[in-house]
Amino acid sequence: MRKLHGKLYPGDGVETARNIIRDLKSPTKIITVGDIITFNLLSAGVIPNISFVDERTKRSPVSNEVTHGTKHPQFMTITVENPPGTITEELLKEVANAMLSDNPLRISVKGEEDLAALPSIAMAPLSSVVIYGLPEEGAVLVRVTEDKKKEIQSLLDRMKCKEEK
């Protein structure tokens, strides 16, 4: 996902994750989308409530260190199919289920996880945060508000209409 839907934190390492952590303000849920941001948050000591990973970054496989580093022992792992550039019904179902879970979840996406940020924002409880990686730039922190949920739901509705035509 290339569009900024929140605040950009430049960089790609643990220091960027620490800058994000300083700005979190006790969110209801922390949701990460992307292997690198998930790895960096975990490395900085924060366990996301929900993380979406696909073992790829910039269309290439991530290192074994990153793959292993996103498999925190507290996570329950769920696998879903979601081809690149799409949001499948299966992904939507797992996002909805994940929002109801009290256990930390690692959702391993076979295909591409990038667009999982959109339904996550639309379905997350208010005051949650969704953090997604923006390759070559950094990470984006989205605060889930009523207005942001409406904005993203409108975008999702337009995407669905496009797919049906």
Overview of the molecule:
This protein has 165 residues and is of the alpha/beta class. The chain has one domain (7-164). 38% of the residues lie in helices and 25% in strands. The protein is built from six helices and nine strands. The protein has helices at residues 14-22, 35-43, 64-69, 89-100, 117-123, 146-164; strands at residues 7-10, 30-33, 50-53, 56-57, 60-61, 76-82, 105-111, 129-134, 138-143.
What radius of gyration results from the CA coordinates? 14 Å
Order of helices and strands: EHEHEEEHEHEHEEH
Helicity range of the residues? 25-40%
**Structural class based on helices, strands and sheet pairing:** alpha/beta
Give a concise summary.
The protein is 38% helix and 25% strand. By secondary structure, it is an alpha/beta fold.
List strands and helices in order, with pairings:
Layout: E1 7-10, H1 14-22, E2 30-33, H2 35-43, E3 50-53, E4 56-57, E5 60-61, H3 64-69, E6 76-82, H4 89-100, E7 105-111, H5 117-123, E8 129-134, E9 138-143, H6 146-164
Parallel strand pairs: 2-3, 2-8, 3-7, 6-7
Antiparallel strand pairs: 1-9, 4-5, 8-9
Descriptive terms for the model:
165 residues, alpha/beta, seven-stranded mixed sheet, two-stranded antiparallel sheet, globular, disordered C terminus
